[in-house]
Specification:
The protein has about 230 residues and is mainly α. The protein has helices at about 5-35, 45-55, 85-90, 90-110, 115-140, 145-185, 195-230, and strands spanning about 60-65, 70-75, 80-85. A 3-stranded mixed sheet has the order 1-3-2. The longest helix has about 40 residues, at about 145-185. It is elongated and about 65 Å long.
Length: about 230
């Protein structure tokens, strides 16, 4: 019954389409500007190191990691991990992504509160994102108070996932803002090259908007189902 509820598609389809569009945009922009070399020949790794050093972050290491667009900053181990293409290529896309991740390291240094909140939420969200929907579905197929209690417990757990997605937005937007400012102010790219950087980072930001929309709409669907059940 849960899987064939027509109302589910009203909630799930719009953010799903947005997510597909966002993934297309980010892959398209990255592919295009991976083929556009930086005028000064700076690679992603070099750009990240320059930003980190000038930001007084000599304790943050830059490492290569496997996977495409697997780039991330690890605040626990103070490591900025860049995918092979971003790490080694002197392209507009590479320096844009690398600078974005370096922006997260700068956030960590100044104690940027949304980043601290997001990092603290990770253990809870990793549980809630998986266990929440399971409890909700189990509760739906059970009768009485126990079933309702389990379903609502699942909703509460999954709500943490939606909150995490919302907190992620200012973290990612701020990192991109810092990246764009630093790339120009530190002479890593020119104003003319910023069009490509903007295209890559703005497309990446759209993926986080889509993820937040998906989580929120799924949460709203769960609540709607429970309200219908109680009527």
């Amino acid at each position: 019954m849960f899987y064939f509820d027509p109302a589910y598609f009203l909630f799930a389809l719009p953010p799903l389409l947005l997510g597909i569009w966002a993934q297309f945009k980010v892959k398209s922009a990255f592919k295009k500007y991976s083929q556009v070399a930086t005028q000064n020949g700076v690679t992603g790794a070099q750009a990240a190191l320059r930003i980190l050093q000038r930001g007084g972050l000599d304790n943050v290491n830059v490492e290569m990691t496997s996977g495409m667009l697997s780039d991330h900053y690890d605040p626990r181990h103070k490591v900025l991990r860049l995918s092979g293409e971003v790490y080694s290529l002197p392209s507009i896309a590479s320096v844009g992504v690398a600078a974005h991740e370096a922006g997260h390291a700068l956030q960590d240094k100044i104690g940027y509160s949304p980043l601290a909140i997001r990092s603290a939420m990770v253990p809870v969200v990793s549980i809630g994102s998986n266990l929440g929907p399971i409890l909700f579905m189990v509760g739906l197929f059970m009768h009485g108070v126990l079933g309702s209690s389990l379903a609502w417990a699942g909703i509460i757990l999954f709500a943490g996932t939606a909150l995490f997605a919302l907190v992620t937005l200012p973290v990612e937007f701020d990192a991109s803002r810092r990246a764009k400012e630093l790339l120009v102010s530190q002479g890593i790219v020119s104003q003319r090259e910023m069009a490509g950087v903007n295209a890559v980072l703005d497309a990446a930001a759209l993926t986080y908007v889509a993820a937040a929309a998906q989580a929120i709409m799924q949460l709203l669907y769960y609540v709607t189902v429970m309200n219908r059940r109680n009527d």
